[in-house]
Amino acid sequence: MTADLSQLVKAYDVRGVVPDQWDETLAELFGAAFVQVTDASAIVTGHDMRPSSPGLSRAFARGAAAQGADVTEIGLCSTDQLYYASGALDLPGAMFTASHNPAQYNGIKMCRAGAAPVGQDTGLAEIRTLAEQWSESGAPAPAARTGAITRRDTLTDYAVHLRSLVDLRAIRPLKVVVDAGNGMGGHTVPTVFEGLPLDLVPLYFELDGTFPNHEANPLDPANLVDLQKRVREEGADLGIAFDGDADRCFVVDEHGDPVSPSAVTALVAARELARNGGQGIVIHNLITSWSVPEVVRENGGTPVRTRVGHSFIKAEMAKAGAIFGGEHSAHYYFKDFWNADTGMLAALHVLAALGGQDGPLSALVAQYDRYTGSGEINSTVADQTDRLAAVRAAYEGRQGITLDTLDGLTVSSTDWWFNVRPSNTEPLLRLNAEARDEPTMTKVRDEVLAIIRG
Question: Where exactly are the transmembrane stretches of this chain (predicted)?
Answer without folding.
Answer: none
